[in-house]
Amino acid sequence: xxxTPSNSPSPRRFRVVPPQENRPxxxxxxxxxxxxxxDQKPKExxxxxxxxxPTHWLIxxxxxxxxxxxxxxxxxxxxxxxxxxxxxxxAYREVTMEISGKITELFVKHESPIEAGMPIAQIESEALExxxxxxxxxxxxxxxxxxxARSQIIFAQERLRQTQDNLEQVRSRxxxxxxxxxxxNSSSPPPEIQGYKIQIxxxxxxxxxxxxxxxxxxxxxxxxxxSRRNVQKLRDEASMIQARMGEPQAAIGxxxxxxxxxxxxxxxxxxxxxxxYNTANQEYxxxxxxxxxxxxxxxxxxxxxxxxxxxxxxxxxLKAPISGLVIAPNWYQIQGKVLRSGDPVLALADRExxxxxxxxxxxxxxxxxxxxxxxxxxxxxxxxxxxxxxxEKWEIYTxxxxxxxxxxxxxxxxxxxxxxxxxxxxxxxTIHSGQSVPLYKVAKGEICSKxxxxxxxxxxxx
Length: 462
Fold this sequence. Notes:
The protein is an alpha+beta fold. It has helices spanning 55-71, 126-183, 191-223, 228-315, 439-450, 453-456; strands at 74-75, 78-87, 92-96, 101-106, 113-114, 119-124, 317-319, 324-327, 338-339, 344-349, 353-361, 373-378, 386-393, 398-400, 405-415, 426-432, 437-438. The strands form four sheets. The protein has a six-stranded antiparallel barrel with strand order 2-11-15-13-12-16.
């Protein structure tokens, strides 16, 4: 059968039509098909059909062209992230103990304002007081030792002076005795020796004269002029003169021995005193050295005591290093606590200077640059939206174990004089990228982010 059902495609037939200028196009006649009754067969369409260009290809092409045109529209993408409001680290200072001690009184409360230099707390440092007392005891001990050393200087100086005086006296006596001993046989002997020598000379002269008389009388006695008795008498007198000469000679010998003995004794004494003088002089020098060595130690201890007292006076009051707001939620527990040096007491912060820390996904971080605008929406109904700018973008990725993704911290500084944001509060942040990019790049980024295409098509997501 050559007939073709109405629902099956009919063969294409072409007809040559001459071109006509400025002839309005006549739409092809439309064939209205009626639905045959159920008991009748559809009639065969004997008229040829005109086939034009397929409309579905036109629609597809139109859609592709539209998508391509729309994808080239440039837009500024934005990212919606959660943010945490914190104090600005540049306007945040932790106040620590400058010395170990007990906080006896606290002058501030939580969230109370304070100016730089105002007292925060009264500190009583038992350790510092004990150290000061120990230094004072050491200073007293060293002062006693120093006074003893200075007393030793005085005693050694007095012994040295006495030894020197005795030494000079003995040395003078030794010189005198040496001169006397040397002058015993000189032409100018001591007066006592000189008297004995004169006596000896006189007796020698008498003895010589007596001997001459004896010689004369012996000659006369031989001649018989005088008797032998007279000669013997003269001889007896000469013997008596000779005997009398022994007394001054013995006296001179006694004086010589006495001078020599005393000279030897004084020389020994001089040697002993010279040694004693050297010892006394050494003791004096040693006492001076000891006293001089203890003076710097005493001065050092006194300086340490002064430093401790000054430190105790300066640090007995803990003062605010900066102006700001007191951050001490447990301020009522601080008073009475004993803390060590360096332990934190409380914190001071500028309530108006805050930051918001936002965690941006690693695949979206390229949309964020310093200077990008950020809209902050507090988690409060009807709260005003704040506009800030990105101040810092870290280069370190952090791993979010809960969401199993890598994020990059982004910081924006906030100046909030109206105090619309509270530290440690969550906010909704919208980061507006300053880059103007085609829409298809935004769509590609969303596809890579939502459907994990990066894992399977890394080149597509670059």
